[in-house]
Amino acid sequence: MKSVFQTSLLFLKNGATVVGLITAVLFQVFFNTIWLSGYDQVNARMNQLAVTIVNEDGAAAEPVANSLAEGLHFAIKPSATMEEARQMLTDRDVYMIIEIPSGFMQQAGDLSSPVTVKYVMNESNVATVKSVMQTVSAQVTATLNREVQQNSIRGVLNQSGMAADQANTMAVGLSSRVEAEVERLNPVHNFAFSMVPMLIVTATFTGAMLLGMNLQKVSGELSSRAGKWERFWARNIINVGAAFIVSLVGAGMMHVMGVSSADGWWMLWLFQLLITLSFLFVAQLSLLLLGNAGAWLNSALLPLLMLSSGATIPRDVMPDFYQQIGHYLPATYAVEGMMNLVLGGDGISHDVLLLVMIGAATLVLGALCTWIKRSGPAQSGIPLESKSSATPVALTGNLPSPDRG
């Protein structure tokens, strides 16, 4: 037992063990700080999700449309036509269309038939949006029922002088005359598919973190045999090769599990390749900029990427800080592009452009970090290189201390 304790002390004297312990603690700090602050009061901010009301019944239904807009506790974005509204829904500028059809008020005056209001939802979104919009549609239907009931009773009273008790009896029959017609844009029949964007962000950046840490370690070990530029470009050659392999395996696994894209498997693979490259360059930049501490920066980036990308909740309901920082992180465009490819959408050209720009920018910044760093032996990356157990403890203080590279 004594030898076990002595061996435990040897583990604790090794820098890699200490770094590992600190990293485990920092993961708790980063995830708790970022996720809990990002999700704080999300329910209260759900009213920031936007819907649009399309009134195709003209001036006759204007009071009803205005009453809906005032009664809904959600952001209302104007749209003049269904075509414009559908484009806003596809672009995720709004999350539901409420259509008041032509002839709505005329139908409301005909007590012999129900009145239909139409809702159009885009299921190419995180699961949270679907459940919230279903609640909104029920709320709107109840509001319209009340409006139709009041208008019908008013008309009956004006035309026939019906007694109030008779009007109240009729109101019971009128209270459920409005029927909801729901159209689902890009319907998602398998919940697992809606999790693909979050899967891509989490798995890809975690892999990029681990590969970057090990390449940093190898770069330090090769510092006496190769210059800083040779090691920098060698790392990036390996990054490109790894991106091909990782994305091929990832896209292949998705195909095996039944995930497909309307644009074909090749487009899915190529887009995942671009995502992987941009994540690798971001993870590498942290290490080139901060050396060993870059691994801790990457640990903070992981929950930040997952949250600010909109992979778990719509970005519209996040605190402003997370909404703004998401514009500069590749995960945002990875999630949007994967939603469009796998769940349905309006193309990925915008997301491809932004991923290329972020990837290029981080690669250039990585080269700049290499350029300003002095030549010489490089610091071994995390996990730290273990010292040989045969090295006397008294001599370790005299060993040359490696620098960063």
From TrEMBL:
Topology of the protein relative to the lipid bilayer: Multi-pass membrane protein
Signal peptide from the UniProt entry: none
A GO-annotated cellular component: membrane
PANTHER family named among the record's database cross-references: TRANSPORT PERMEASE PROTEIN (PTHR43077:SF10), TRANSPORT PERMEASE YVFS-RELATED (PTHR43077)
Name of the molecule in the record: YhgE/Pip-like protein
Domain ABC-2 type transporter transmembrane: 21-368
MF (Gene Ontology): ABC-type transporter activity
Organism: Paenibacillus pabuli
TM regions (residue ranges): 12-31, 191-211, 232-254, 266-288, 295-313, 352-372
Keywords: Membrane, Transmembrane, Transmembrane helix
Subcellular location: Membrane
